[in-house]
Amino acid sequence: MILHSRKEYLGECLWPSRVAPMELLKGVHVIETYATTTLLVDDRLILVDTSADADAGKVMDYLNQIRVKPKDLSTIFITHTHPDHVGGLAAIKHGSPAKVAAHRIEADFIARKRVYDGPSGPQSHPGTAVDVLLDDGQKVDGLEVIFTPGHTRGSLSLFDASHSLLIAGDAARNESGVQPMDDRYNVDPKQHRESIKKLAKFHFENAVFGHGAAIKGGAGAKIADLAKHL
Predict the structure, then answer these.
(1) Do 29 and 62 form a contact (C-beta atoms < 8 A)?
(2) Distance between CA 133 and CA 160 in Å, rounded?
(3) Is beta strand 45-48 parallel, antiparallel or unpaired with respect to 75-77?
(4) Cβ–Cβ under 8 Å, residues 165 and 143
(5) What span, in angstroms and rounded, lies between the C-alpha atoms of 79 and 82?
(6) What residue ranges define each of the domains in the chain, with the CATH number in brackets?
(7) What is the pLDDT of residues 167-180, one digit of tens each?
């Protein structure tokens, strides 16, 4: 996984114009955009997060490389409303019948019906309606919703038992080791750490993070170790 340093959390994107295919596990594709986008390809075609608006073309280029069209997607999950996760949604959703799924707290921010009042400030992405309102413990398309607030008010992570996989969103990051997100961008730093402790109760081997390298094998132990030191 090639990682590029970030000038700022929501600053300049330094990714190449073409994204090399990266299949972490069979049927689990990690698309290396500014904020990682995950694609599940088995009996499902699911996209998790859409990166920044400038990265929408890279996501669609990746889909084209593996012969998946946006219109083939069944669901697009959004882990939270920050622009580096929701910015590409409108472009990817255009012409696609995929349902958009997000935590019910986050839905109005994603749709731009409400002004987001946490860091990094008011959002500027094109509003997109959320079709499926998610709650903690709910299962959709084989993914279990884990409510992990603190980074934003309605942040969520997803657990895919079939791949022993945690899709963390920004509940944690793996940059120079597994750690919390930078508190400058957390709406509630204490709640964010409680969410990491919550993730530590789940049993999984693999993890994909919004920022930093994916982990293949031993991911749950690393999250549990982080939780012990919070």
Answers:
(1) yes
(2) 18
(3) parallel
(4) no
(5) 9
(6) 23-228 (3.60.15.10)
(7) 999 999 999 999 99
Residue 17 has pLDDT above 80, yes or no: no
| Residue of 164, 230, 152 lying closest to 198 (CA atoms) | 230
Backbone angles phi, psi at 207, to 5 degrees: -150, 145
Please answer whether residues 126 and 16 qualify as being in contact, where contact means their C-beta atoms are separated by less than 8 angstroms.
no
C-alpha separations of 167 from 20, 63, 104, 224, 226 in Å: 20, 19, 18, 15, 17
Strand order in the sheet with 23-25: 23-25, 28-31, 37-41, 45-48, 75-77, 99-103, 132-134
pLDDT digits (tens, 9 = 90+) for 47-59: 999 998 888 888 9
User: Can you give the pTM of this predicted structure?
Assistant: 0.90
The DSSP symbol for 174 reads E
Most confident range, picked from 1-10, 58-67, 93-102, 193-202: 193-202
212: left (phi over 0), alpha (psi -120 to 50) or beta: left
